[in-house]
Amino acid sequence: MHFTVKKYITILFLVISIPAFAQHYDPGTVPKKAQRWYDKAQQTMLMTTSADRLPAIPFLQKAIDEYPGFADAYILAGSIYEKARKYSEAIPYFEKANQIDSVYFLPGYYTYAHAEAGAGNFAKAIQLINRYLQQPNLRESSQRDALQWKAHYEFGLKSEEQHIPFDPINLGDSINTADPEYFPTLPIDQKTLIFTRRVNNVKEDFFIGHLLPDSQWSLAKPLILGSQFSGNQSNGNVNSPYNEGAETISQDGKILIYTICNRPDGYGSCDIYYAVRTDSGWSRPYNIGPPINTRYWESQPCLSPDNRDLYFVSNRPGGYGGSDIYVSHLQPNGTWGKPVNLGPDINTSGDESSPFIHADNQTLYFASDGWPGVGGVDLYYSRRQPDGSWGKPTDLGYPINTIDHDGSIFVTADGRTAYFASDRSD
After folding, report:
1. For 164-169, which contacts have Cβ atoms below 8 Å and span 24 or more sequence positions?
2. What pTM did the predictor assign?
3. Integer distance in angstroms from the first to the last C-alpha of the chain?
4. Taking CA atoms, which of 1, 130, 317, 407 is between 20 and 30 Å from 122?
């Protein structure tokens, strides 16, 4: 009897103590040794970029090992993983912080929700963002931002329920590097891949890879253009001293139309240029000139399969938003006609970008942050209508679109393969 009572009292003590610990986290009670590891993590973060603070994680783990109830260490570790778009790694840390003290962690629910949505858990993300919005005295700007993301999560939940089959294949380290790669384009034979790389995350240049017999891509190399453009070709200098990118190539692979920024012969900050491939290689660049180029920003051209329509993006006055998609038609005399805004069926008060007209000449793909979608920038498609107008855009849906920036796509002529650029974590 005595033993039984003693056991009962011990169990009762444990039942009481755990909830008390979980509901009352006090940063001032953190042991000094655990705090020193936490401070070391913060010092490490100061020596890294905001997008790559993963070196601080081992120090935070040491702090957690010293004091398993260290909510701030869990929150910071989860935030670092979330910032690095390693959402699945972030979630366990946020869950633990929430178990320790859900009231203390409540201001962090915004980031917690983003991590859950990044991992595809949209229902959980909606629950968390709703709880975040219930905070008293939440700033208007924070509330507005949270409501915007809540709409994205709700869109993602509906899209997720459609069970879109999707198993993307990373093109590997022959094409992709630590630098950003985007705007993929291929001629109709699908054996040559030209894309833009932001070298050292600063300067944009063209790179080219070739499909090998084993269906792998060769190591991408700088695309060398004409001698008046590329500088010293003998040592493999890339492109030019200027930023060039956002390219389109004709289906026969002989015309390259692209963007160059801040070139002395330009009309605005960024202009559209073209080069022609001959037996001796690519020509120097030619400015495509007015009325396509203006003193404003023109970029991201896409040539139709019959070479008669040129789609591009501009922020010139008279549009519907920050940047709109326009089209110019080839005239009988060989010049390009006055650009026409694609109108409110495509363009919004936000930014539209990365137009791609498919080989069927009836399907337009593009990116936008103005139409309802899963994330900040999603990929959409629109079908040409019998009267020549464009139908209402359709979001490609989750998991093709994510909460991250999904910004450019190229669909092969047979419609069975797409090359796309995304800043997702893999």
Report:
1. 164/397, 164/398, 164/399, 164/400, 166/399, 166/400, 168/420
2. 0.84
3. 61
4. 407
Contacts of 281 (CB under 8 A, 6+ apart): 224, 225, 226
Q: What is the pLDDT of residue 13?
A: 33
Whole-angstrom distance, CA of residue 18 vs CA of residue 71: 15
Residue with tokens 């690095």: 84
Residue 71, phi then psi, degrees to nearest 5: -60, -40
Q: Render pLDDT for 352-365 as a digit per residue (tens, 0 to 9).
A: 999 999 999 999 99
**By the 8 A CB rule, do 300 and 183 touch?**
yes
Structure tokens at 215: 């269906």
113: left (phi over 0), alpha (psi -120 to 50) or beta: alpha
Residue owning tokens 């009988």: 332
pLDDT at 206: 86
Close Cβ partners of 230 (under 8 Å, ≥ 6 residues apart): 224, 237, 238, 239, 240
* Ranges assigned E (strand) in 67-219: 181-185, 192-199, 203-210
Q: Which residues of the chain have pLDDT under 50?
A: 1-22, 227-238
Q: What share of the chain is helix, strand, coil (3-state, %, to 5)?
A: 30, 25, 40
pLDDT score recorded for residue 5:
36
**Mean pLDDT of all residues in the chain?**
87
Q: Residue 272's pLDDT is what?
A: 96
Rounded Cα gap, residues 2 and 154, in angstroms: 58
CA 255 – CA 307 distance, rounded (Å): 9
Residue pair 355/311 in contact (Cβ under 8 Å)? The answer is yes
Q: From residue 399, how far is each of 242, 275, 403 by CA, in Å? A: 36, 36, 9
Q: How far apart are CA 84 and CA 426, in angstroms?
A: 11
Q: Where would I find the H helices in 161-247?
A: 227-230
Amino acid sitting at position 353: S
Tell me how crowded residue 198 is: count the other CB atoms within 10 A of its CB: 15
The reported pLDDT for the residue numbered 160 is 83
- Closest C-alpha to 166, from 399, 394, 380, 375: 399
Q: Pick from 310, 327, 321: which is nearest to 247 by CA?
A: 310
